[in-house]
User: Fold these one by one.
Assistant:
Number 1:
Amino acid sequence: MSIFSKIAAGEIPSYKCAENELFYAFLDINPLVKGHTLVIPRREEDYIFDLTDEETAQMHVFAKHVAQAIKRAFPCRKVGMAVLGLEVPHAHIHLIPMQSEKDLNFANPKMQLPAEEMEEIAAKIRQEYEKEV
């Protein structure tokens, strides 16, 4: 069981931003910018393109709603999306608020935010997501 599966199951704490029966969104603990969120399927699958067509479509629609919530919570030009997936063997999408394309550079230094601030960020996104769905 991957660390992301344990997070989605509630076995490991996370800063939850949104969820439904199929997907879970939570803050990246080493964000590039405030609001950097990960979207995962609850069903563990290593490679995003090994998801079924239906799961892929549903995951992108879920990510779209989360991205819209992020954009309202953290006004930005756009919310960028990246699929990397080499560090954790569980399909995931990064959603990153962007003012410029430089904000989506994974070589940039990662932020270290206190737990209280991370919870405030997640709460803002959750509040906006709940308006969305």
Number 2:
Amino acid sequence: MKILLAVSGGIDSMYMAERSLRGDLSSSVDSEFAVAHCNFGLRGEESDGDEKFVRDWCAARGVRLFVRRFETSAYAVAHGISIEMAARELRYAWFAELCSQEGFDAVSVAHNADDNAETLLLNLLRGCGSRGLRGMSADSGEFPSRIIRPLLGVSRSEIRSWMDSEGLSWREDSTNTDTYYKRNKLRSKVMPVFAEINPSYLRTLAADMERFAQVDDIAEDYYALAAQECILPDGAIDLKKVVSFKHWEYLLFRFTEGRLNADGLLRLKKSVESGRPLGGKIFGPYKVRKGKLRLI
């Protein structure tokens, strides 16, 4: 198996890289590795220092290295998105490109147990639906950019303990302490309180995410069956058929997800529940015509 290691130079990715080359991770057995490093150009000399650190590490171990520099800020402005989202889009698009061009079977990223717990809470705060409660997948199974996460069962404290015990070095990202970023604020201010309440909260949340995933699979089957009856060939939603289902409110959420915001969905639910005629009413990008919810 040919695996591309996404290595930033930070402690998590250096742990993943070191243990992958030693064959310590499940994905490491009989695998061939190369490293991909993204220089997003957001921290000036610090970003360049990260790149040099990864270059030196790869050279010392004879590991093939791919480096891409991005104009991240310009990309974010051009696409009207946040810096974080721009960096995500840029790196995963490049990873997919590398996999296709160089024949890699998967990209290995260094998300750990703490990252997974933080993602769960951030998803809850965004209003995520059941899919956001699943947490991260250990193996996306998707090609051409299959993403594997071999560290989801490893905590941040375990990673630091092992790196210290081995006398290994890594790069510190100065922005990790900046609580302007939501994840950093959660990490520094909220997670310590969780640890006080339940020292085993990472294991508890991990077990919950496994159960949430099972529930979401059931919900997905329910949605798929309902969609066959409720969504017409032209994409319109038959409201009469929707309300014939026991969990029709969930179905409305799924059918309009990504297009109708929370306020619009609430108005639609209340209008449907009232039983009054809805012809001509507008809900966000939708309009009701002859009992069918259609995009305008």
Number 3:
Amino acid sequence: MTRTISVHAEHSYPVVIGHGLIDDCAAYLDRSNYERALIIHSRPVQSYAMRVGKAFIRRGIEVAYFEHPDGEAGKDVDVLARAWDAAGDHRVGRSDLIVGVGGGVTTDLAGFVAASWLRGISVLQVPTTLLGMVDAAVGGKTGINTGHGKNLAGAFHSPVAVVADIDTLATLSEADFNAGLAEVIKCGFISDPSILDLINAHGPVASDDSIVDELVERAVRVKATVVSQDLKESGLRETLNYGHTLAHAIEKLENYQIRHGYAVAIGCVYAAHVAHVLGRCDRECIDKQVRVFNRVGLPVSWTTDNFDHVLDVMKSDKKVRSSAIRMVLVSAPGLARVEKIDEDVLREAARVMGVADVDS
């Protein structure tokens, strides 16, 4: 069964979820007169990119490909410049489009190429990872990394459509699939507690389990609802960054050698400790998060010998205002808000959680 969720941003677009969609993804374009498509992908998903290309060729659209380095190395300024050159080499014009085929790195890069090339052209997102389907490809946030942190350069640029073929998840490693579940669980804590109930009742989730379709749909609906109300992260959309304040710091300090979802799981548990220190939730709130992340094989702890360095990186977070760190806190599943957090609270939460041996 194919499920379609509408996102209402600067323009409305569908997120189509189902099986066997990738070979006809061009059917979801918003218009029929595209002339060229530049397909951006990494090497591990080359076969999917070629299948997408064939779908466009069948519709009379000229196709070119740009392969970027795998992993976070693909979101580098030099890679972006090479992608611009590829767009120029293949004469991608205003009546053409960019297509992102792959995980979150690919959709972030493809979206930013589309947002910046000729001051903005169309982009179709075809995520092939769970993380891409429920988070990165939906919502129109695009970006690349800089020396100061993750996703600090970017733009809001909504796709013409997102085509999420669940069958592509079968090629993911267990670790990569589980990493995507972190973003699904995050949606459960900030908005839809039914997600948590489903996972707790089911236990470990595999990519071919029937529950995956519902989890993807529920997570996408959470993001679609939030984005439709707050496209440019002026308020409500910040709650989608639950767990990301510490997560992005961990990723940078670990030289992006840790999976994003792993860092998010750790970051959510840390945020729960912060909420507990502030009296926003009880100990059971922390335990619930530890249990559900453990249920799907995700880490819930991390240590550092230099918490001052962590704080410095966290101060580059996009939610920082006037040098004050602001975090998404959850007082109970479905109840999330953003608060300014004093450094002594951050240190105490780190000490209690065991992130660092912190001197108050």
Number 4:
Amino acid sequence: MFTGIIEDLGTVSEVKKDGGNLHLTISSKITPELKIDQSVSHNGICLTVVDISGSDYTVTAIKETIDKTNIGDLKKGDLVNLERAMKLGARLDGHMVQGHVDQIGTCESISEEDGSWFFTFNYDSTLGNVTIEKGSITVNGVSLTVVNSNKNTFSVAIIPYTYEHTNFKAFEIGTKINLEFDVIGKYIQRLYDLRV
């Protein structure tokens, strides 16, 4: 379980394919505090640390994760939003984030307005996921509030701190992003779909 508050912006130092799996080695300032078998969110994807070497650590993504997220697009030098699992009893500064990506979205527009940025994303609404105005959404692991909600698009406002300390600064029109929709909304949608 995570909060969507990014701790560090890691850098991909190696990408290695192994059968259907993908091994990612990440360089990060949080590496010395990690341990083998620990869960870390990578652009919103919960992955397990399998190796640690100096300031680098390695995680493995299986085919299911590769198929349902943007992790297969990562290459050496890319920036990755990182967050360790939340601690019980600590402040919950973002919202409840599971680290299970629901689907991929695409950056549709970016605009700068008075020192902040507005990003609009589109997604396939036929998969049953929804956003609501002022509701929570996780974009590449970042906990955000929906500013503008439509059937298959939504917008978020990004303050300068978030822009500088996450990989939002690397987004362009067409960038694929990982989306985790609000868990309460997902349960309500599921119940609605099962109504008799």
